Each structure stands twice: as C-alpha cells, then as structure tokens.
Amino acid sequence: MESRRRDMELLSNSMAAYAHIRANPESFGLYFVLGVCFGLVLTLCLLVLRLSCQPPMRTPPHPRDLSEDEEDEDEDEEEEDTVDRAASESLLPVTEIPLESHGPGDGALAVNVFASAEELERAQRLEER
Questions:
Q1: Which stretches does DSSP call E strand in the chain?
Q2: Residues sharing a CB contact under 8 Å with residue 108, sequence separation 6 or more, in sequence order
Q3: Taking the CB of the first residue and of the last residue of the chain, which one, N or C, has fewer CB atoms within 10 A?
Q4: CA torsion sign, 82 to 84 to 89 to 93?
Q5: What is the C-alpha separation between 94 and 91, in angstroms, rounded?
Q6: Are 95 and 111 in contact (CB under 8 A)?
Q7: Under a CB-based contact definition with an 8 Å cutoff, are residues 110 and 96 in contact?
Q8: How far is residue 89 from each of residues 3, 18, 77, 83, 85, measured CA to CA in Å?
Q9: How far apart are CA 83 and CA 89, in angstroms?
Q10: pLDDT at position 104, please?
Q11: What mean pLDDT value characterizes the chain?
C-alpha cells in the first residue's frame, strides 16, 4: 500500500507543478534559461580545470634519419621509396591554419605546420612531382 501512496503523491506533485507552469510561463522560461546557463558555465569551468591540470604532453622521438641509406639510389627510385615510406609510416597530424587577415580572393595560402623538417621535405618533394 506504501508504493501506491508514493505513486499518488508523485502524480499529485506532477499535476501541481504542471498547473504552476501553466499559470506562470515567464518564470518557468526564466528558470529554464538560468539552468541551461549554469550548466554551460559549470561545464566550461570543469573543462578549463581539466586542461590546466593535465601534465604537458611529451613529443614522440623522431624516427632515425633514413636519407643516409638512400644516397646510393638514383633520383626516381628515391622519390618512389619516399612516397611508399610516407604512406606506410604513421605521420604526425598536419595542421592547416588559414590566414584570417587575408580574404579568399587575394591569393593567400594556408600555412602548413609540420612536426619535423623531414615531413616538410617530403611534402615539398611530393608537391614538385
């Protein structure tokens, strides 16, 4: 019998809340917006706290320089090996940063930020091909 009483109490409270909302829609809207804003501010604070408490990320060690082994090969085989090696290796992500001060029609290029000089050389060789 206790559970039935709780169910009736929950139904009664729900109906009272609905009646209050119908009578005062402005206050309901205000409380709703305040709740959403509070949730967003709390999420932002927790995100900033999490980012500020993380230890700095370590950069992975660079792979050994493979250009010394390639000096004996001719230019065509070197380019093919470089392309094959670039496809097989897991490269660090490349970030493209658009220049905001220039408009799209004035010939401004995106700035590529590479993790190492080797990746920059590979990209330049591929671009020349």
A1: 95-97, 111-113
A2: 98, 99, 102
A3: N
A4: positive
A5: 8
A6: no
A7: yes
A8: 64, 61, 18, 10, 6
A9: 10
A10: 53
A11: 75
Q: 85, 67 in Cβ contact below 8 A?
A: no
User: Which residues are CB-contacts of 17 (< 8 A; sequence separation ≥ 6)?
Assistant: none
Residue 79: both structure tokens together: 């380019």
Q: What is the pLDDT of residue 34?
A: 97
Q: Average pLDDT of 92-120?
A: 60
Structure tokens at 62: 């660079």
The yes-or-no verdict on residue 64 having pLDDT over 90 is no
Distance in Å from the first CA to the final CA of the chain? 83
- What percentage of the chain exceeds 90 in pLDDT? 33
pLDDT digits (tens, 9 = 90+) for 4-46: 888 999 999 999 999 999 999 999 999 999 999 999 999 999 9
38, two tokens: 């509070």
Q: Which amino acid is at 117?
A: A
| The pLDDT value given to residue 76 | 54
Tokens (6 digits) for 78: 């070197």
Enter the tokens of residue 2: 């206790």
